[in-house]
Design brief:
By secondary structure, the protein is α/β, with parallel strands linked by helices. 46% of the residues lie in helices and 13% in strands. The N and C termini lie far apart (58 Å). The structure holds 3-methylbut-3-enyl trihydrogen diphosphate (IPE) (2 copies) and magnesium ion.
Length: 263
């Protein structure tokens, strides 16, 4: 092993390793979801085209997925493209679709090596057929992996998802196979695309915006929300571990009172 060239170079690595140890011992959230925002502003700040921000954003995805597998996180959901993002200029949409193509093609081997199971939630009818085929291929090839469940919200919109679940229940009631009186929050959740995932414990949004932008609206009922000012391409594994550390400090009550408060 070669010696580190300077103390300064060693310091951040050592700090990261220490943080990773913390994450292994602390109560890790079962499910972290991230609204990856700020690629455009990152590029503008560098006088670069928005496309360059999206390219840098893919590198950040790689860093966070590696960190998540390194610490043994169970579920990570990344908001990659919303159902409203189709409203962007066609050149930007085409560039983003090209990046999805290359990610699903070039990263699948590393995901397999890291025991990651990749899946997509969202509308599967509007993107180009070849992307949907690539996604299905990744899903098939990683289906047996038992490590991190990595879910990309791709052409995803929570309101559409909730409407589709309501429609499915209404159709079953109309056909006489479902008693409307039997519908509960649990049975409704089971109709959502996230049916086999626990609700997110922590939702992080980068770039300083403080909104959910149609992401996991039903599932976020009791999620801890963390808004960070960092633009997505700059969101580092260290900041990810900091986020988990700050989550571990929060007291989750789920409507109850903490035992110490009960006199
Ligand atoms: C997030 O970055 C990426 C996608 C929504 C696909 P943005 O492209 O929204 O970046 P800003 O918000 O314009 O900075
Ligand atoms: C949300 O970011 C969608 C993704 C991160 C994929 P946007 O940049 O599209 O959200 P708004 O338009 O600022 O609400
Ligand atoms: Mg944005």
């Amino acid at each position: 092993m070669s010696a580190p060239s300077s103390k300064a170079e060693l310091a951040p690595k050592a700090e990261l390793a220490q943080k990773a140890d913390f994450a292994k011992t602390a109560d890790l959230p079962r499910h972290v979801a991230i609204i990856m925002d700020g690629n455009g502003r990152w590029a503008r700040a560098r006088h670069m085209p928005r496309a360059a921000g999206h390219v840098a954003g893919v590198s950040a995805v790689r860093g966070i997925v590696r960190a998540a597998t390194d610490i043994g996180l169970q579920n990570l959901t990344l908001y990659a493209f919303s159902s409203e993002n189709w409203k962007r200029p066609p050149t930007e949409v085409n560039h983003l679709m090209g990046l999805f193509r290359s990610y699903f093609r070039s990263d699948v081997d590393e995901l397999i090596a890291r025991n990651v199971r990749l899946r997509i939630i969202g509308n599967r009818s509007r993107a180009e057929t070849d992307i949907l085929e690539m996604i299905e291929d990744c899903e098939r090839r990683t289906a047996a992996n038992a490590g991190l469940n990595l879910t990309f919200a791709f052409d995803y919109g929570s309101q559409e998802e909730i409407a589709a679940a309501a429609r499915a229940l209404a159709e079953a009631a109309r056909d006489g196979t479902l008693d409307p009186a039997s519908i509960t929050p649990q049975s409704f959740s089971a109709k959502l695309s996230t049916a086999d995932l626990p609700d997110p414990d922590l939702i992080i949004r980068t770039s300083g915006e403080r909104r959910l932008s149609n992401f996991l609206l039903w599932q976020s009922a009791y999620a801890e929300l963390l808004f960070v000012d960092t633009l997505w391409p700059d969101f580092s594994p260290k900041q990810f571990l900091d986020a988990l550390e700050s989550y571990a400090q929060r007291e989750r009550r789920f409507g109850a009172v903490s035992p110490e408060a009960v006199a």
